[in-house]
Amino acid sequence: MANICLGTLYGWTVFKPFVHAEPYNISLPDTTIPFSVSMLVFGITFALAGRMIAKTGPRLPALIGAVCAGIGYILSGAIMFAPSASLPILTVTFGVIAGTGCGFGYNPPIAVVGRWFPDKRGLALGITVSGYALSPLITAPAVEFLAKAYGIAYTFIILGVIFLVLLLLLGGILKFPEADWKAPPVPAATAKKAWVAASRDFTTKEMLRTKTFYLAWLIYMIGAGAGLMVIGLTKQIAGDMTGLTGALAWMAVVAVQVYAVANASGRVAMGVVTDAIGPKRTLLIMLVLQLVCLLLLFPFVGRSAAILYMVIILYGAMYGAYLSAMPALSSYFFGAKNMGPNYGLLFVAWGVGGVVMPMVMAQVLGKTPTIEDYVLGFQVTAAFVVVGLVLALLMKPPEAPAKQEGPAHSDKA
Q1: Averaged pLDDT, groups of 10, the chain, 413 residues long
Q2: How does DSSP classify residue 403?
Q3: Which of 24, 108, 154, 194 could form a disulfide bond with 86, CB atoms 3.0-4.6 angstroms apart?
Q4: Among residues 349, 345, 341, 342, which one has the least CA distance to residue 51?
Q5: Which residue ranges form the domains of the chain, and what is each CATH number?
Q6: How far is CA 28 from the centre of its chain?
Q7: d(Cα 48, Cα 52) in Å, to the nearest integer?
Q8: CA distances to 29, 137, 366 from 262, in Å
């Protein structure tokens, strides 16, 4: 439930037309800025929340997240008083303040679940983070309705009040297992798998000494950034490339919802896959499927809505997969004990990717993009994904910290 509130950031593609229109008049390329800033701030504050969780537990950062998310949306309503300054206002309120709220609010559930379900980490984490992905399924039509009925400024305020109340209530109930609690024993067949047997509890300093962390960080930045690029453009792609405008505009909103469902489904499905075949093989599958979408499917979405929806389902699922496969990778490779701060640093890559990839695409598209511009943008994105694929092939499980002993690692993970 908390992630459904926080995941409204994903619905920015529905906010964009309203802040692009009168009286706000933010140019189409510039409408990406508040979203991109929120992604960057989200990633950075997620890491800060991880450090706080290690010291205070999950509740305090969750409550800080609730306040920042709610206040950020409420203050975004200030654009009604200064329409000409709407871009800097939204960059600060939606991008920085609400982005901070999402970072502090999103880390605690992941850290908590990592402790409670050590035997099925991918599945448990996938289900947990799927709420964030499902958010646009609810918030996209809600924003559309509220903005048309009351204006986009009041929509921000209404959402902010709702989020503030709900997140404060929900954040207060998160907790780690008691000190004397013992997890169910891991089944023998699972324990023998290389990525499970290789699992050790790395401190953050120990993790930062491994090559595995930096390779995973770059893969995360590229793969997740490529997915975030499409999240911010889903409705625009549906309108410009497939022609879903005018009487068919509702189908563009549906495309946003379809991406949200695929995003959530991919988190759960690929979380299960990660448990079954390991993080490395899972990442290779995800990157290859992203390439198929970018080079072979997206360029042809102009032919029919069916192709559009097909590629959105596949691409959305692969983006969502990063949000379960990567925390599972962190837990398997670096241990569950310090997952809050460790995955926090890995998650910074998600925020950086959320700035780099959408900005690259925005520069390729320009102010009045053509279908050829979109195709070129997909090809440029594919080039980044190829780099990620090479890095994934090079990645191996980290060597155990010197002070610990355990089974030898296998490259098959």
Answers
A1: 84 83 85 85 84 86 94 93 91 94 89 78 81 78 88 92 94 84 67 57 89 95 90 79 78 81 87 86 95 92 87 92 89 81 86 85 84 90 95 88 50 45
A2: T
A3: 24
A4: 341
A5: 2-176+197-394 (1.20.1250.20)
A6: 23
A7: 6
A8: 26, 10, 28
